[in-house]
Design brief:
- By secondary structure, this protein is mostly helical.
- The chain has a domain at 5-67: Winged helix-like DNA-binding domain superfamily/Winged helix DNA-binding domain (Arc Repressor Mutant, subunit A).
- It has helices spanning 5-20, 28-35, 39-51, 76-84, 109-124; strands at 55-58, 64-67.
- The protein has a two-stranded antiparallel ribbon.
- Helix 1 packs across helix 3 (39-51) and helix 1 (5-20) packs across helix 4.
- The radius of gyration is 17 Å and the shape is elongated.
- It starts with a helix and ends in an 18-residue tail after the last helix.
């Protein structure tokens, strides 16, 4: 599994918004400058996050973006599922129902299912709030 820049940048945007949230909307230009990411590229990422309901946007002079919930209510897993899709390590696990003809006799299926669960559980255990610390330590339980 490889996380794209879109996924990594989405997490950085959410952390930035959590760290600078004071009830007002934060302009995308400010986020782009602080994160050293192209504003144009961030527009596409933020659009995905707004569509998914993680952010709300406001146009105009005092416009920008803000979180729809508190930082402890967002997991890294939620964000990555929006930007990356699911965490299926093999094609047969991409859909909720495994339609592989060989599923009943596959000797490695459990390995891939367990791996997918590990990844899901790991990313779901990390909140945006836990990533806002300045000491570099993550405050989450595996």
């Amino acid at each position: 599994m490889k996380i794209s820049t879109r996924g990594r940048y989405a997490i950085r945007v959410m952390i930035d918004l959590a760290e600078h949230a004071q009830g007002e909307y934060i302009p995308l230009a400010d986020i782009a400058r602080r994160q050293e990411i192209s504003e144009k590229y961030l527009e596409a990422i933020v659009s995905m996050l707004v569509k998914a309901g993680l952010l709300v946007g406001l146009r105009g002079k005092k416009g920008g973006y803000r979180l729809t919930k508190t930082p402890d209510q967002y997991s890294v897993g939620d964000i990555l599922k929006i930007t990356e899709g699911n965490f299926a390590p093999v094609a047969c696990l991409e859909d909720e129902i495994n339609s592989c003809d060989r599923a009943s006799e596959c000797k490695t299926l459990k390995v891939w299912e367990d791996f997918q669960k590990l990844v899901n559980d790991y990313f779901s255990s990390i909140t945006i709030e836990s990533l806002t610390g300045n000491d570099g330590c993550y405050d989450y339980v595996i």
